[in-house]
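User: I'm writing a tutorial on reading structure tokens. Could you give me a worked example: one chain, its sequence, then its tokens, then a sentence or two explaining what the tokens reveal?
Assistant: Sure. Here is the example chain.
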Amino acid sequence: MDDHSHLSDTELRVRALESLLTDKGLVDPVAMDAIVDTYENKVGPRNGARVVAHAWTNNEFKKWLLEDGTAAINSLSYVTTQGADIVVLENTDKVHNLVVCTLCSCYPWAVLGLPPVWYKSFAYRSRAVKDPRGVLAEFGQVVPEDVEVRVWDSTAEVRYLVLPMQHPNTKGMDEEDLANLVTRNSMIGTEILDNF
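And here are its predicted structure tokens:
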């Protein structure tokens, strides 16, 4: 028998539930693994990071992405199946964008994967609108006073993706290396990419 002593109570409960559902024929473990793989590796933030890296290296794509985010993202085969348009917001040296969903947790899964727990929390949803600079500071990000902070509220019809500023030290890097630098939080607007 495997030693599961290293697992938390929650992990043990999940394993017990999965085992019970599998034994009853209600869950196919292969299908479950495929779903998990899809959201962790194919629909996760890596897709968004690749979109950002492509925009950083291809000005025509960047222009298209900012004009019609949904079409540009779909062209890279990251199809948005949620029935919502994706609007891409560019961070600049004068504007910093922050995304929230004040009503629930609308989120562009096709390019960011599963939403983080904090994104769905009432504290984030309410405070991001009232005190965006304070929320950013809690994430360790200080936005200079001369930079406007814009908060964008996602809906069932429109989801947002932040196009972070590319750090000057990363110019000339290839797309794959750039994609490795882009984080989920930078595409939500709670992180500024500046540690290069």
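What the tokens reveal: The beta strands are 85-90, 95-100, 148-153, 158-163. The chain has a mean pLDDT of 90.
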